[in-house]
Amino acid sequence: MKYADVYQSWRSDPEAFWLKAAEAVDWTRKPAKALNDSRAPFYEWFGDGEMNTCWNAVDRHVEAGHGDRVAIIYDSPVTGAKRKTTYAELLDQTSRLAGALQGRGVARGDRVIIYMPMVPEAIVAMLACARIGAIHSVVFGGFAAHELAVRIDDAKPRAIIAGSCGIEPGRVVEYKPLLDGAIEQAAHKPDFCLILQRDEKRADLIDGRDFDMADAMAGATPAPCVPIGGADPLYILYTSGTTGQPKGVVRPSGGHAVALAWTMKHIYDIDPGDVFWAASDVGWVVGHSYICYAPLLIGCTTLVFEGKPVGTPDAGTFWRVIQEHGVKSLFTAPTAFRAIKREDPEGKLVGEYDLSCLQSLFLAGERADPDTIEWAQAQLGVPVIDHWWQTETGYAIVANPLGIEMLPVKIGSPTVAMPGYDVQILDETGHPMPPGELGAVAVKLPLPPGTLPTLWNAEDRFRSSYLTTFPGYYETGDAGVIDEDGYLKIMARTDDVINVAGHRLSTGAMEEVLGSLPEVAECAVIGVSDPLKGQLPLGFLCLNAGTEKPSDEVVKDAVKHVRAQIGPVAAFKLACVVDRLPKTRSGKILRGTMVKIADGETFKMPATIDDPAILDEIRTALQGLGYAR
Ligand code: COA
Ligand code: AMP
Questions:
Q1: Cβ neighbours for 416, distance < 8 A, ≥ 6 positions apart
Q2: pLDDT exceeds cutoff 90 at 417
Q3: Of all atoms in ligand 2, which is nearest to the CA of residue 504?
Q4: CA triplet 626, 627, 629: central angle to 5 degrees?
Q5: Probe ligand 1: pick from 308, 504, 559, max atoms within 8 Å of CB?
Q6: Mean pLDDT across the stretch 356-384?
Q7: What would the pLDDT profile of 301-349 be if each residue is shown by its tens digit?
Q8: What is the per-residue pLDDT across 538-573, written as a single tens digit (0 to 9) for each?
């Protein structure tokens, strides 16, 4: 089989291609049609079908006689715990938790927020919601109470399932006070909370509102799977946009199962029974798709790893896990490899383990720099595959399809468009550009099954964020180039989104938080280059006239405030006070120019700049922070 033939078979008959792919899913009512485009540019896939994602990820493997197969391996160097869960056990736990939710009034279409660390119960919680047709929304544990509150008010959950704590190297992060704070801040109140009590820090439960998750499961009647419409939402996952209000990406059930099952074989070359490890977090899209759903949909073993690539206990942890659990394919963000490489540049620890089970490494979430790819290739001796996608799509737009054929690697390019995606480079007027020219990366509509059909409660925002700039296309927010061979290269974001350690963050959200400090008259946050995390946020603060507080105290407060409001994951530690910000004559802050100065790149003086002298002040301030050198 050749990639070109598979891609062409999709192009020539997308309907037949996706109906064929849909055969990998069990339907309680088979879809007669794949695409419904009667409301274009809003599209619906498999809308006339009926299925249940939990059935497909759990029950059917047990029915087929694979109940003893391991579904989840939990390996937690931060607690010392290791545990295996078979498919039969996963079915029991999932149906009990589903019963506990149902018994307390959660029904099809209700939302449930999940705020949990990297423990298998997080997967059980997601599947339990799917089982009864409730829509889950997982919130990453590194977000603080305010961010959780914003999501509670948008999703309006009937219930919240949370861990009592998470464990970061050297500290226990108590989730419960954050949860209580978020519920207090939010206008919407959930009916009840289920709390996973962890021994590292048990939480005080509020009488009548909070219940111990283990007790609730023990006393529950197991619930069967509820068939739901193919286009009905499975989950909402909030992601950063340009403002402080996150975007609620909606994931439709049927198309998601069809597309993810397709990717496991064709992109990752993974078969039922293989061990697949996505070293990410359930709070991100990689965790949703490749820790939870895709591996289970095809009946393989997924790994839930609660630790870091370094420091838990050392830079050999990944290799220990691969050897011990027989991992066939590892998927992580390049930043994890940069962290390992920094601690063990010669790969001494790699040599201490038998990694013969490992057949491939997949990287995504941020730009994969050539040094990191080459180091990984040399150390592991397996194909290192960069692939490009987004929360919005839920799986790779551009990749090297290892399970079809491995195409020649061009380092710096995530390779070529996957079936379903007609990727084009457009100029400012929306016209396709010739090969080799830089422009906006866009995908011709319709997007394939499983991608976002809309934003939760925000159809207008969906339209304006993605569909308006280039009519007939989905705007990805990335800029890039496609070469003569169809290879894409991603160069930068075209909006105010930055990527810190593979985490997608909004500089606009940080500016909103900084702007709320009483001393701050105006501010700007940019993403500067960082050798470990790819980018780091850096804030410029202009203070109100008459501010008496010393600048270094304002900066300290600003750092504390962002951590408290957005969370430690924002990694906001760099800020400086300046008199003015560089602007165009129409008042637009020249963030792009400041980024270039910080990164020591050459730049053209913007023709519309109001006062070029301000750039010297900015350069001096950046030099004080160790940048612009
Ligand atoms: N709960 C609470 N706090 C969390 C958290 C969580 N789930 N995840 C991260 N944090 C905290 C960290 O402890 C850190 O706090 P600190 O400022 O007190 O040190 C802060 O948020 C920033 O986290 P991070 O950016 O991850 O930095 P780090 O120094 O802890 O680790 C790496 C750096 C590179 C090792 C780490 O980012 C990593 O493993 N990345 C892998 C990439 C990845 O998983 N990407 C997901 C998308 S694929
Ligand atoms: P997220 O929605 O968090 O997955 O972030 C998506 C964004 O991360 C993309 O729009 C890109 O800007 C960036 N990204 C993801 N994968 C890659 C990659 N392989 N190469 C370059 N950038 C990437």
A1: 3, 7, 398, 399, 400, 407, 485, 486, 487, 488
A2: yes
A3: 3
A4: 100
A5: 308
A6: 97
A7: 999 999 999 999 999 999 999 999 999 999 999 999 999 999 999 999 9
A8: 999 999 999 999 999 999 999 999 999 999 999 999
Find all residues with CB under 8 Å of 399, minimum gap 6, and list them: 267, 385, 387, 388, 389, 414, 415, 416, 418
Q: How far is the CA of 459 from the centre of ligand 2 (A)?
A: 23
Cα–Cα distance between 483 and 489 in angstroms, integer? 8
- Cα 423 to ligand 1 centroid, rounded to whole Å: 32
pTM as predicted: 0.96
What percentage of the chain reaches a pLDDT higher than 70?
100
Q: Ligand nearest 280 Cα, by number?
A: 1
Candidates 595, 606, 605, 604; CA nearest to 628 is 595
Q: Which residue's alpha carbon is nearest to atom 21 within ligand 2?
A: 367
Q: For residue 392, which of 331, 482, 488, 456 has the smallest C-alpha distance?
A: 456
Contact 228, 29 (CB under 8 A): no
Q: Nearest Cα to 523, choosing from 507, 501, 535?
A: 507
What type of residue is 200?
Answer: E
Cα distance between residue 226 and residue 214, in whole Å:
23
Euclidean distance between the first and the last CA atom of the chain, given in angstroms as a whole number: 51
Nearest ligand 1 atom to the CA of 569 is: 21
Residue 529 one-letter amino acid: S
Q: What residue owns the CA closest to ligand 2's atom 9?
A: 390
The radius of gyration computed from the CA coordinates of the chain, to the nearest angstrom, equals: 24
DSSP annotation string for 111-131: EEEEE--SSHHHHHHHHHHHH
Phi and psi (nearest 5°) for 376? -65, -40
Give the closest ligand to the alpha carbon of residue 443.
2
In this prediction, residues 119-147 reach a mean pLDDT of: 97
Please report the atom of ligand 1 found closest to the CA of residue 365: 48
What's the pLDDT at 23?
A: 98
Burial code (b: 16+ CB inside 10 Å, e: under 16) for 66-83 equals bbebbbbbbbbbbeeeee
Pocket of ligand 1 (CB under 6 A): 141-142, 166, 168, 173, 280-281, 284, 286, 308-310, 333, 335-336, 339, 365, 500-503, 533, 568-569, 571
- Residue having the nearest C-alpha atom to atom 15 of ligand 2: 365
Alpha helices in 345-440 (DSSP H): 370-380
CA distances from 421 to 263, 396, 447, 629 (A): 13, 9, 7, 41
Our answer on whether the CB atom of 504 is closer than 6 Å to any ligand 2 atom is yes
**pLDDT score, position 514:** 97
CA of 340 to the centre of ligand 2 (A): 21
- CA angle (358 as vertex; 355, 363 as ends), nearest 5: 120
Q: For atom 18 of ligand 1, which residue has the closest CA?
A: 568
Residue 393 — pLDDT band, cuts 50, 70, 90?
A: very high
371 to 375, 408, 412, 548: CA distances (angstroms): 6, 18, 10, 47
Residue nearest to atom 11 of ligand 2 (CA): 366
Query: Could you please report the per-residue DSSP string of 563-600?
Result: HHHT-GGG---EEEE-S---BBTT--B-HHHHHHHHTT
Q: Where are the alpha helices (DSSP H) in 304-369?
A: 317-325, 334-343
Please state, in angstroms and rounded to a whole number, the distance separating the CA atoms of residues 109 and 127: 14
Q: Give the strands of the sheet with 329-332, arranged side by side.
A: 81-86, 70-76, 301-305, 275-278, 329-332, 360-363, 384-386
Cβ atoms 127, 52 nearer than 8 A:
no
Residue 557's contacts (CB-CB under 8 Å, 6 or more residues apart) are: 517, 519, 549
